[in-house]
Every structure is written in structure tokens, then in C-alpha cells.
Model the fold of this input.
Amino acid sequence: MIPDFRGDGYLPEGVHRATEAEITFRFGTDTPRRRRLALRLRRWIELSRAVTAKRLLVDGSFVTTKPDPNDLDAVVWLGDDFVDRVSRGDVEAVELEMMLLTRQPEEIFAAEDRRDWEDWVEFFGRTREADGRRKGVVEVDL
Done:
């Protein structure tokens, strides 16, 4: 469940698990910009499920109170067989691989192991404000 926002517009510190529907309803419906970002996220969720990703993290101003967020950031923890799927020409794996390699879109990142995942959670768990205060992120239930 996604908690209420803090007074500064961010989620409380921590990783908050939620379903695709919860995330879409909470963050992806209020403005045209939010709806466009929600469609992008939907595709990333589809790809993550298709390649049996271990986890998917969502962040960026998409998960704040900003009415017109600048971005939607995501980190996908790739499954152990991801490279094999790409080598076999699995369409979804190749599509995701191209996104990650070309950085198009530039807001999706990969974690290959637990250490990578934890580093990304730490990175996205801080604001870009001068004080670098901690904030919450959302993990999609895959």
C-alpha cells in the first residue's frame, strides 16, 4: 500500500510495494502528463513481467505531488536468464535491452544483482534538494 505524502510532497522514507493498478490510480490519472507517464510505466511493467524480472522500482517526480512531473524513473532487476533471452531473440528482452543500451528512454535503469539493486534504492531514496533528505520509492508487484 502506498502511504500518504509528507508535507514536502514526497513519500515517507522506504520502499513501498504496490500493484500496477494502485500505482496507476495514485500517480497516473490526474493530468495529461501523468497519464502519458503511466502509459510508459505500463510498458515497462509488461516488459519486466515478460522477461521475468526480479523487481521493478518506480521513482522520479511521478511519485510526488507535482501536478506535472518532469519524469518517471525506473530500475528493473533483470532475471538471471535475461542475457540468454536476448541471445535467443526474445522480442521483449531485445526491446528492453535496446532501451537500456541506448538510454532511450533515458529514465530506465538496470540492476544485475542485489548490490546493484540496493545501490539504486539508496540513490533514488534521496531527494535532489540541497539537504539530500531521504524519501520513499515505490516497488511494483510483478
